[in-house]
């Protein structure tokens, strides 16, 4: 499995967890469990992605801008996670923030798969 295949697999997991998370209600065990899974998945994935993909891409002029943009989006995701951490699960705006997180992450994943991965892999774009 290539790094790009592994990252796409993680992306599918993230999309699924977020879709399930925004369907939860109130201060429930289901919401807590899914949120903790989303949080952990996003944290570990971003750390690995930055080390294995974005740091090397930043040293190449052709890929530097895309890599920096993607890392900046990781920080935006972290900020939304911090906001969710500070918000009670039963608050009406918790779900609003969770949907914003879903939109941001989905945008980020789509952009990575369509724009970053083709220029990040060696050889001809696939």
UniProtKB/TrEMBL annotation:
<protein>
    <submittedName>
        <fullName>Hemerythrin</fullName>
    </submittedName>
</protein>
<feature type="domain" description="Hemerythrin-like">
    <location>
        <begin position="2"/>
        <end position="118"/>
    </location>
</feature>
<dbReference type="Pfam" id="PF01814">
    <property type="entry name" value="Hemerythrin"/>
</dbReference>
<dbReference type="InterPro" id="IPR012312">
    <property type="entry name" value="Hemerythrin-like"/>
</dbReference>
């Amino acid at each position: 499995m290539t790094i790009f295949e592994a990252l796409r697999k993680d992306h599918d997991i993230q999309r699924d967890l977020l879709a399930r998370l925004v369907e939860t209600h109130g201060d429930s065990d289901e919401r807590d469990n899914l949120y903790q899974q989303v949080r952990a998945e996003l944290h570990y994935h971003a750390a690995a992605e930055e080390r294995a993909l974005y740091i090397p891409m930043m040293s190449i002029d052709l890929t530097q801008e895309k890599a920096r943009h993607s890392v900046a989006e990781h920080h935006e995701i972290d900020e939304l996670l911090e906001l969710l951490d500070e918000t009670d699960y039963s608050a009406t705006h918790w779900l609003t923030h969770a949907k914003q997180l879903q939109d941001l992450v989905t945008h980020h994943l789509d952009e990575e798969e369509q724009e970053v991965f083709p220029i990040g892999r060696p050889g001809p774009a696939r």
